[in-house]
């Protein structure tokens, strides 16, 4: 009886190993070069490390709940969607908003949290443009300025759509940290980023050279629910991920992970 029990146990364990999925996960980061130098470990002083670490923890918790062995790669934000679209990655994390255009390229999980966008700039730039415009600078009043946003982002698409009407010189950067650097060296007047991505950067900026300008905006494609990107036509994986998200939210794990990295909520 003992031999048979051991045999069945061995077969069960082997079956469990076979059934476990092998998944490749992409997490968008601000400065991939720092990760390359640190062996794919998130340096605690890395720009935006809180958001990266949050996505890393969430990804690993989802992988655990769907019984998947996941290999995590840290890539520039602009590489997340193309990587999932080309099926080089099975899951993509990076403050991704769901849009009709993106739905043609990738599938999306159930919502994770909600996002909004906000202008950034130096106090001097904000004051100079307020004087020139005759009112405070905001997303709605911005005109005749040089503005940068993240390559492949909804913020960049919004700016390009209004550029000619508002007299904006729009440029893109590969990472949010590069947008911040462009503000510091006066290559642009303002940046437009997601609030959570910008907060993660400004939280570690001891110089206080850059600040939020105007109110957060969530309409016109500048905010909404954030999702995980998945390859098209993999409904089995999508359903498993959605069930894991529901369970993580239901038992309080999501809130615990968020509080580990942020002093403010993600909902």
Explained architecture:
It is a single chain. The chain is an alpha/beta fold. It folds into two domains: 21-115 and 224-261, 3-Layer(aba) Sandwich (D-Maltodextrin-Binding Protein, domain 2); 117-217, D-Maltodextrin-Binding Protein, domain 2 (3-Layer(aba) Sandwich). 45% of the residues lie in helices and 24% in strands. The chain is built from eleven helices and eleven strands. The chain has helices spanning 2-19, 32-37, 49-65, 77-85, 100-103, 123-133, 154-166, 176-184, 195-202, 235-250, 253-261, and strands at residues 21-29, 68-76, 91-97, 107-108, 113-115, 117-121, 146-150, 169-173, 190-194, 211-217, 224-230. β7, α7 (154-166) and β8 (169-173) form a beta-alpha-beta unit. The chain starts with a helix and ends in a 6-residue tail after the last helix.
Number of domains: 2
Query: Helix- and strand-based class?
Result: alpha/beta
Low-confidence stretches: 1-19
How many runs of DSSP E, i.e. beta strands? Answer: 11
Strand content: 15-25%
